[in-house]
């Protein structure tokens, strides 16, 4: 079993290869060919999604986004961690299979 | 004793069906990739089916035959439905048998149309471009499509938008519009004549497009230019509202209503993404039909994004 809390600022997330995405007017739609599930990301999540390359860590992504937006990096990094955990929880991040994810402790 | 290996029961049943005195054989129907006809011993039912599929009727012998056999004696009634001699259903419930046959026809239309991405939707045509009305069942798609066709738009389908991945064009599948009981009170002008077959239809009206307008059917494929997600608000004091829908939300809607995305995978995803990219997208909350059609006409008059 994998725990989502293992995802921290040092993690370098990447999508599974079978997850297709398209950007439409700033929003990204994800299509998981393996499960047939569809996910719609809002504009800020879409910006982060397009930076997930398996090399950049969440900290680097957070700092890049914060720099571009002119906001505090720590707050953005925390939000990116939450987003990546959510994406991993629905099975679109490499290394995370929803069937093998440990449910959060009560 | 019959040797079932040498003479499969299916063959025997098919031969017995061939020898029956049918009261009606429909014309051959080519519905997207499915080529079929229906024969039945109830003349009125066969004539109604000819009307349901009239816009897709063609000449020649069907590749597949449905047989709808009603056995009726005092105190006894059974319906048997066959496809190519294979029995699909044997039931005392007349409407269940008929609706099952229509369901099976739809399933075979979908399965035999793997060259196109299918989305559960109504589609009408305006100025040579497609208006895709996509939403879950009982959201008002059929009612809205019918109202727009009454006002002069062309009719492509009330069942499935069939989009070719290579061209992006929506192909017609113009079977009769299925008006459920919930919408019949304000569409009373389409109430079918009672010909003694209503027990088969379970209250559902099948409205042939030619009964809306003689030239209602759009025979040529169209490129989608509008994606509308309708939702019936329940009439009464409800007010019709048209609100912009993001293309991402519209794509999500089309994907959720897709009937064969598992067949096309990423190609299907790209096909639907291209369809919304070329479209103006809206969510339509419908108060009543006239105001919904007025609102749609005003929006359509503004033209497509690339027009």
Low-confidence segments of chain A: none
Q: Which range does the strand content of chain B fall in?
A: 25-35%
Lateral arrangement of strands in the main beta sheet of chain A = 1-2-3
Return the CATH architecture of chain A: Alpha-Beta Complex
Based on secondary structure, the structural category of chain A is alpha+beta
Average pLDDT number of chain B: 91
Q: What report would you give on this structure?
A:
The complex is a heterodimer of chains A (106) and B (307). Chain A has helices at 43-49, 58-69, 73-89, and strands at 19-24, 27-32, 38-41. In chain A, helix 2 packs across helix 3 (73-89). The longest helix of chain A is centred in the last third of the chain and has 17 residues, at 73-89. Chain A has a three-stranded antiparallel β-sheet. Chain A has one domain: Outer Surface Protein A, domain 3 (Alpha-Beta Complex). Chain A is α+β, with helices and mostly antiparallel strands and 106 residues long. Chain B has two domains: 9-111, no CATH class; 117-174 and 217-301, Phosphoenolpyruvate Carboxykinase, domain 3 (Alpha-Beta Complex). In chain B, strands 1, 2, 3, 4, 5, 6 and 7 form a seven-stranded mixed β-sheet that branches. Chain B has a six-stranded mixed β-sheet with strand order 11-9-10-16-18-17, sandwiched between helices. Helix content of chain B is 30%, strand content 29%. With 307 residues, chain B is of the alpha+beta class. Chain B has helices at residues 9-18, 43-52, 94-111, 141-150, 181-184, 247-256, 261-277, 289-301, and strands at 24-25, 28-31, 34-40, 57-58, 64-73, 76-83, 86-91, 117-120, 122-126, 129-133, 154-157, 160-163, 170-171, 177-179, 205-207, 223-232, 241-244, 280-286. Chain B contains eight helices and 18 strands. The interface between A and B is medium-sized, with 13 and 17 residues.
